[in-house]
Design brief:
Blueprint (H helix, E strand, L loop, with lengths): L2 H17 L6 H19 L4 H12 L2 H8 L2 H14 L8 H18 L3 H5 L3 E2 L8 E2 L8 H13 L3 E3 L4 H17 L3 H7 L3 E7 L7 E2 L7 E4 L7 H24 L13 E2 L12 E2 H27 L12 H20 L7 H14 L18
Helix pairs in contact: 1-10, 1-12, 2-3, 2-4, 2-5, 2-11, 3-6, 5-6, 9-10, 9-11, 10-11, 11-12, 12-13, 12-14, 13-14
Protein name: HEXXH motif domain-containing protein
């Protein structure tokens, strides 16, 4: 196809993924998510003074203030831990820490109009753009908010060591966010809006990773120094992981899985590109988030390929040498996963099945035939 037709297909796919309601629009998704956290605060307000004060503030808060407070990953984690403590009887957090963090979040909103974690931990803004979050620096760790955030990260990811990013790394992250914005002006903004905190971390004990997210830490992405080698490699990682945290928020807002779903008892899928390795068997929650990410990456690499062919930017030395192949790989994997997901409709809620159908319809205009060898290898257990 000629590049004009290609561009039209990518622009439309990007618009759908960035703007559609209920699964694309950041404004819609975040409003739903923040509303759910206000509901959770109401459930523990009688038990925790800090929760009560923050609940009263958030009930009347405008969208900007709710984003500032309830977009903070530590505040979200703390509210959920409070529900675990008071309603489920879990030893998720002690009452003193819960009240200190939520009281501090309320005070920061009321007096400073700042995000609790960003200020108390000395985080650095990625840029002045409002949809760009913060980078964890580790500059301040002698307070309850910073200590608990580190504990929550390492408790879930003991194989990582959180690093203090160098000035060069901070500059690369800033440039990476600009690359995402330039390549995907709508979808990049939407995805990055869901990322509140970027953490630079290295592997310990021989484990290897490039970038990741983890359930239970909404809005947090982890980048290894490896992906910070260039703005474009960092941009790919930031966009990739931001699409993951966006899917977490979509699920939180819409409840994509049938009641009672648990990853450990999920039907398992074996993606053919992982055949023979330790990542071979995926539960359906992992399939769903990968389907979402690969669809976004198809648009990302497709736009890079268009730029290369059109010669829109003079310096291409840092760009991937094979964006057309990466695009083909991403769209083939995305289509395989959406086709496979449709075979497990009973595992998903009505919203989840609508989400899968929406993703599949978004993929249709993107020009790449599904390869014959990508046949379903789904199994149940």
């Amino acid at each position: 196809m000629d590049s004009t037709a290609d561009r039209g297909a990518f622009v439309e796919a990007e618009r759908i993924l960035a703007q559609d309601v209920p699964f694309g629009s950041y404004e819609y998704i975040s409003t739903r998510v923040f509303g759910r956290y206000v509901e959770l605060l109401s459930m523990i307000a009688k038990s925790a003074p800090g929760a009560r004060a923050l609940f009263e503030r958030m009930v009347t808060a405008n969208g900007e203030l709710r984003r500032l407070v309830l977009g903070d990953p530590l505040v979200r984690r703390t509210i959920e831990d409070g529900v675990g403590l008071y309603l489920l009887g879990r030893d998720a957090i002690d009452e003193q820490s819960l009240n200190e963090i939520l009281t501090a979040a309320d005070e920061h909103a009321r007096h400073r109009h700042t995000q609790l974690l960003a200020e108390t931990a000395g985080c650095v803004s990625i840029s002045s753009a409002p949809h760009h979050g913060y980078v964890w620096t580790g500059a301040i760790e002698d307070n309850i908010a910073a200590r608990r955030f580190v504990m929550q990260c390492l408790g879930r990811l003991p194989m990582l060591r959180i690093e203090q990013p160098t000035d060069e790394a901070l500059g690369t992250i800033t440039e990476a966010a600009k690359v995402v914005d330039r390549l995907l002006p709508e979808l990049g903004r939407s995805a990055l809006s869901h990322t509140s905190t970027v953490v630079v971390a290295t592997s310990v004990e021989g484990s290897q990773y490039k970038s990741l997210t983890v359930p239970g830490l909404p809005g947090v992405i982890f980048l290894s120094p490896t992906v910070l080698a260039s703005p474009v490699s960092a941009a790919e990682a930031m966009f990739h992981e931001s699409m993951h945290v966006k899917l977490m928020d979509i699920d939180y807002a819409e409840h994509l899985f049938a009641a009672g779903f648990r990853p450990l008892s999920s039907p398992m899928v074996s993606p053919p590109w992982h055949s023979g390795d330790r990542k071979q068997r995926w539960p359906l929650d992992r399939l769903l988030t990968a389907m979402h990410v690969y669809t976004g990456l198809a648009v990302f690499f497709g736009r890079i390929d268009l730029e290369r062919r059109r010669g829109g930017v003079t310096d291409r030395s840092e760009y991937p040498a094979d964006p057309a192949m990466k695009y083909q790989e991403a769209i083939e994997r995305a289509r395989y996963l959406s086709n496979t997901a449709q075979d497990h409709f009973n595992t998903f809620s009505a919203a989840g099945n609508s989400f899968i159908k929406w993703i599949a319809e978004t993929q249709e205009p993107l020009d790449a035939p599904l390869l014959q060898h990508l046949q379903s290898t789904a199994t149940s257990e």
